Amino acid sequence: MEKTLLSIEQMEEINSLLKQKAVEAGAETWQDRKEAQKVSCKFGEEGVCCRICSMGPCRITPKAPRGICGANADTIAARNFARMVAAGAAAHSDHARDIAHVLHMSSENGSYKVKDKDKLYKLAGEWGVSTEGKDLYDVAHEVAEVALMEFGKPFGTLRFLDRAVDGRKETWEKEKVAPRAIDREIATIMHSTHIGCTAEAESLVRMGIRTGLSDGWGGSMIGTELTDILFGTPTPTQTESNLGVLEEDMVNIVLHGHDPSLSEMIVLASEDAELVAYAKEKGAKGINLAGLCCTANEVTMRHGVKMAGNFLQQENAVLTGAVEAVIVDVQCIFPAMAALADCFHTKFITTSPKAKIPGATHIEFDEHHAFDSAKGIVKEAIDNYANRDRAKVYIPDSKQTAMAGYSIEAIIKQLDLVTNSHVDKTGTVKPLADCIVSGVLRGAVGIVGCNNPKVRPDYSHIEIIKNMIANDVIVVATGCAAQAAAKAGLLDKEARNLAGQGLRTVCELVDIPPVLHMGSCVDISRIILLVNAVAKHLNMDIPKLPVVGIAPEWMSEKAVAIGNYVIGSGIDTFLGVYPQVTGSAEMVDLLTNRVEDIVGAKFTVEMDPAKLSEQVLERIEAKRTALGI
Ligand code: SF4
Ligand code: MSK
């Protein structure tokens, strides 16, 4: 185990060495800016600053309990919170819309092709798209059109809601939180939070859930499905993680962001014989790709591309002095990367009109000529290899092996290893459900989300994961949480030695690590569908299952949308960072208590990872007791 595990202290030591590199280069990092920000604004922190109209901004204090229009702390905090959900759902769903457009332009001879035909035909069947006698790409284009209609259709509710277990559908219907069209839910929040509309906190919480659900069971689910159709459904893949994946003598390209329509093409371009030969001509041994944030998750689970790290590691990648280019698309990219890259030879290349950053080299990615466009971007990186200043290079000697790519299909395939083919049907979640019911596994948790300097980076992720697996709770992870696990060695199969007896036995039987990498942030839809499948198998609604969601270090608006659809799906959610609503007692009560009466699940906030772990384990055991298992 010593070989594969990296302690948080070792990680922090590497971070300090890299910080020293920043000082030497005169470069500023997030630690400096955090220090400069010192005390954050109390009104913003508590969610009681309103700048929705130009009579304000209005801030709520004991002496001024209402804004000029009369909005109180509850209204203001609820409106701000709802707008975070809308922004998060917009980001995920717009990403999905782009993928749908890419599917719509896919063709036999173009850059984008259909890789998972079975998944396409399955989805076509589910959506009533006829396939009889049709060309594969005609089916793909029709499926893409149906997906695109989900964003703005005028009537009905989202198609994927039909996938949900009966209890969920009934709850959503009864509580009027069943999402209609994705864009419609986002627009409804923006309308209802305009001055002079909804002032009632509970209405806004309900709208937040409905809009969150339009992300989880809409945008994100569409994103995941169509990405699998285009680029392949992930299968377990061995990879490596942390900054040690960068190479001294190769052209290092770091891919950062979220949208696989760019990163998939960069992967292909980096394997192009002509470009590899060009890199060698320039004195490098080849081209080495590494990922950051969710793009890392996307390309690692389909190609085994190595993972350089998560959100708060993005600057560290540049600080190694060994990166020729950081190529980004959308979301979670520090604007500070441009100035940081200037202190080194690194080219910081933005590619999306949706995420232009001053100081960056902007090379717009042309999806209509995707492969050639990607080749042009990779060539920029190769040309920059000669500019690397060897005196500035420090690649930490730190990398861990990791398994990634556990799609639901892949998990079921692994579970079939324990299926008794004489008795059981293969291809179901029955073995997983059996393990949970029997108590071999006490339950399951999804650990997701970002890093946040408000807590010790990666520490909460790693501590909570270790506590879960030691107590026979299987962990699935996505996003930056999955990468924290990877860096610590917890995605390695060997990490089963840290698990309790029950989980260890399961891991050995079905040959999996105790922490399953299920992908990027949009792939939390995979987690939801896995839980939903178990609920259907056991013929019960999701809130009854000993299953919990945890976002120990969340920071983004997307995470707020996710939190809303996770509780909306009936899964209790534990947060390690407070949402900005604490200035409203009613919002705190709604989110941590009353919302349970609406959707059967609620939020719990605890910043101490040890205490949070205890509370999660207690919740899991309470659910087991209620079920009599
Ligand atoms: Fe102030 Fe009301 Fe305008 Fe908000 S909407 S800024 S509380 S007047
Ligand atoms: S990238 S949203 S920091 S998980 Fe999806 Fe990581 Fe959070 Fe971005």
Automatic annotation (TrEMBL):
Top-level taxon of origin: Bacteria
What positions does the entry give for [4Fe-4S] cluster 1 binding? Answer: 41, 49
Q: What is its EC number?
A: 1.2.7.4
Q: Which UniProt keywords apply?
A: 4Fe-4S, Iron, Iron-sulfur, Metal-binding, Nickel, Oxidoreductase
Write down the chemical reaction(s) this protein catalyses: CO + 2 oxidized [2Fe-2S]-[ferredoxin] + H2O = 2 reduced [2Fe-2S]-[ferredoxin] + CO2 + 2 H(+)
Question: From the Swiss-Prot or TrEMBL record, what is one GO molecular function term?
Answer: hydroxylamine reductase activity
Q: What class of enzyme is it?
A: oxidoreductase
Q: Where, in this chain's numbering, is [Ni-4Fe-4S] cluster bound?
A: 258, 294, 332, 450, 480, 521
Q: Name one Pfam family in it.
A: Prismane
Cofactors: [4Fe-4S] cluster
Protein name according to UniProt: Carbon monoxide dehydrogenase
Q: What are the binding positions for [4Fe-4S] cluster 2 in this chain?
A: 50, 53, 58, 69
Any single GO BP term = response to hydrogen peroxide
Recite the lineage of the species. Bacteria, Bacillati, Bacillota, Clostridia, Peptostreptococcales
